[in-house]
Design a protein that fits this description.
alpha+beta; Phosphatase 2c, domain 1; 6-stranded antiparallel sheet; 5-stranded antiparallel sheet; binds calcium ion
Length: 248
C-alpha cells in the first residue's frame, strides 16, 4: 500500500500575499506525512509563522517517525512536534516587535497503512471523502463556539463578522493545546487537509464532487478553482492523500 499525495496552494483573488504554507511527503515504508498552516499577523509575520511552523513540524516528524508506531504514539509524535514548534515561534514573536502577535493554525496527518492520525490547532481542517464528506476536525474558532452553544445557526456562521477569529493558534501563547483523532482510510477514500480559504468558499457537496474526480492532480486543481469561483477571498491550500496498491 502506498499513499498518493496531491497538493496545491493559491493566493486566491483578494489577498496581496499567500500566508498559507504546507509540506507533504512519503516517509519510509509507504507511510506519509502532511501539514497545512494558515498564518496570521501583520505585514510578513503571518508568512513567517506559517512557514516556520511547517518547517519545524516537518523536521520533527520526519526525524522522529518510526514505522509501526501505534495510534497513541503517532498522535503523541504530532502533538510533540506542534508543542515544540509553538515554543520556538512564541519565542521569535516575543523577541521581535514586528513579529509580536503572530501565530498560525496547523493541521497535520500521519498515514501508515490504512490508518490516519490527525492533530490540529485552529480552523484549518481535515476531511475524509468517500461516498460522503465528513469533517474530522472541530474548528478552534469563535464561530464554532457560538454554533455549539446554539447562539448562531450554521447559516449565520457563513457571514459572521468574527468568522476568521480563532481561539487557539500555534505561536500565539506560551502553551498550545492540540486535538487528535484517528480514522481508517478505505481504498477509494481520500483524506483532505485544507485552510479556510477552501472550507469557507466551497460547499461540502462541491468539495466532495471535486475530490471524487478520478485524477487526483485534477481534483486539487478543481478544489482551488471552486474556491476562486466562489470569490477566492482568502489564500487556498489543499493536500489530498489517498491509498493505492503499489505497482511493481
Ligand atoms: Ca485563511
Amino acid at each position: 500500500m502506498a499513499v498518493i499525495i496531491n497538493s496545491k496552494t493559491d493566493i486566491g483573488l483578494v489577498r496581496s500575499s499567500n500566508q498559507d504554507a504546507f509540506f507533504a511527503a512519503e516517509l519510509e515504508g509507504g507511510a506519509a506525512f502532511a501539514v497545512v498552516c494558515d498564518g496570521m499577523g501583520g505585514a510578513n509575520a503571518g508568512n513567517i509563522a506559517s512557514e516556520t511552523a511547517v518547517r519545524l513540524i516537518s523536521e520533527y516528524v520526519v526525524h522522529s517517525f518510526r514505522l509501526g508506531m501505534d495510534s497513541f504514539e503517532a498522535e503523541k509524535l504530532l502533538k510533540n512536534a506542534i508543542t515544540s514548534a509553538n515554543i520556538e515561534i512564541y519565542g521569535m514573536a516575543q523577541k521581535d516587535p514586528e513579529l509580536n502577535g503572530m501565530g498560525t493554525t496547523a493541521v497535520t496527518a500521519l498515514v501508515e497503512g490504512d490508518r490516519a492520525v490527525i492533530v490540529h490547532v485552529g480552523d484549518s481542517r481535515a476531511y475524509i471523502a468517500g461516498k460522503e464528506l465528513a469533517q474530522l476536525t472541530r474548528d478552534h474558532s469563535v464561530v464554532q463556539s457560538l454554533l455549539e452553544s446554539g447562539k448562531i445557526t450554521p447559516e449565520d456562521a457563513k457571514s459572521h463578522p468574527r468568522k476568521n477569529v480563532i481561539t487557539r493558534a500555534l505561536g500565539a501563547e506560551q502553551e498550545v493545546i492540540s486535538d487528535g483523532t484517528e480514522v481508517t482510510l478505505k481504498e477509494g477514500e481520500s483524506l483532505l487537509l485544507c485552510t479556510d480559504g477552501l472550507s469557507g468558499f466551497a460547499e461540502p457537496s462541491e468539495i466532495l464532487g471535486a475530490i471524487n474526480i478520478e485524477d487526483k492532480a485534477a481534483a486539487v486543481e478543481e478544489l482551488v478553482r471552486i474556491a476562486k469561483s466562489n470569490g477566492g477571498g482568502d489564500n487556498i491550500t489543499v493536500v489530498l492523500l489517498g491509498l493505492s496498491e503499489r505497482k511493481g
